[in-house]
Design a protein that fits this description.
308 residues; Rossmann fold; 2 domains; 8-stranded mixed beta sheet; 8 helices; 8 strands; globular
Length: 308
């Protein structure tokens, strides 16, 4: 073996070792090590603004999640509970603030989970794509889906506050809109009453030949039977008529995303039309005049779908 060959072999082995170490370290840091804020003592939700931290999963204590709440003084059990899902900025407290006046006027209990992630500018799998897969493409158990976390929060709220509500409503804007429509598609057994997906950046289409998150090929779901269940849910695709500028917010421009439409308004309309041929179809589409990619204005426009 020549000196050049030996040197090349050493370089290849060294490179593979470094890459393997980085991948393993990244996986351990992102998915194995405990992360999230410190757990808070179990206590009933206070009137006004409040928050608590709980374990995200029922089967593991390695991840926690902070949950922001707003409860009007006159709220009582069986009054509406509305989950509000933040955008890609992971700013749940800001979204909560946008719903305070709405909550006071309509006597809603607002629940705003905060899916914190230091790498949120680079990773979307853990939140708007539901955590079905790790950053490296490995499947997660359903117990660790982000949609399951919402169900776990609802269980916690019911147990700690002696709430008898059997369902909750859910609103999400932008990345939160992605979260909401995918939760309806992928977990139709969830206890959602009305779901509102506002100004989503891109969608998961009912296509068995496209990989998730663009399609449903690798989700493990039965396309016909599971979609039939999803179509029975009360889902509103809420679109801003002026949300036709791809330069607003974070806008995905991959080839598969661009096939859905040139902007969010087109993509939402195309998504709705791609699903509406089902015999039993309980979804709606609502386009709001004079509103663009604005979560505060879209939140106000969502109320009519929650009080009907």
């Amino acid at each position: 073996m020549s000196k050049t060959t030996r040197l090349l072999k050493k370089i290849i082995i060294y490179t593979i070792s470094i890459i393997s170490l980085l991948v393993i370290s990244g996986y351990v840091y992102l998915y194995i090590l405990p992360k999230g804020p410190k757990i808070t003592e179990t206590a009933p939700i206070e009137n006004g603004k409040d928050s608590f931290v709980m374990y995200a999963y029922k089967t593991s204590e390695r991840k926690t999640i902070k949950v922001w709440t707003y409860k009007p003084q006159d709220w009582k059990t069986v009054n509406k509970i509305v989950f509000v899902m933040h955008g890609g900025g992971r700013n749940a407290d800001d979204y909560l603030d946008a719903w305070v006046k709405i909550a006071k006027t309509n006597n809603f209990l607002i629940v705003a989970p905060e899916f914190a992630n230091k790498f949120s500018k680079y990773t979307t799998n853990d939140y708007q794509e539901g955590n079905l897969f790790t950053f490296f493409g490995v499947k997660n158990p359903k117990e660790e889906w982000a949609y399951t976390v919402v169900e776990n929060i609802f269980d916690r709220i019911k147990a700690v506050n002696t709430i008898s509500n059997k369902t909750y409503d859910i609103f999400g804007h932008s990345a939160g809109g992605q979260f909401v429509h995918r939760m309806v598609l992928l977990m139709p057994e969830s206890r959602i009453g009305t779901a509102i997906a506002a100004n989503s950046g891109f969608y998961t289409f009912p296509n068995a030949n496209l990989n998730f998150p663009y399609g449903m090929e690798n989700t493990g779901l039965e396309l016909d039977s599971d979609l039939a269940k999803a179509y029975k849910k009360d889902l509103v695709i809420l679109l801003g008529a002026l949300d036709n500028d791809p330069n607003l917010g974070t806008f995905r421009t991959t080839d598969l995303a661009m096939e859905q439409g040139a902007n969010r308004l087109e993509r939402g309309t195309n998504f709705y039309n791609a699903n509406k041929e089902s015999e039993e179809f309980n979804w709606h589409i609502d386009t709001i005049k004079n509103v663009g990619h604005n979560y505060k204005e879209m939140s106000k426009s969502a109320v009519k779908w929650l009080i009907n």
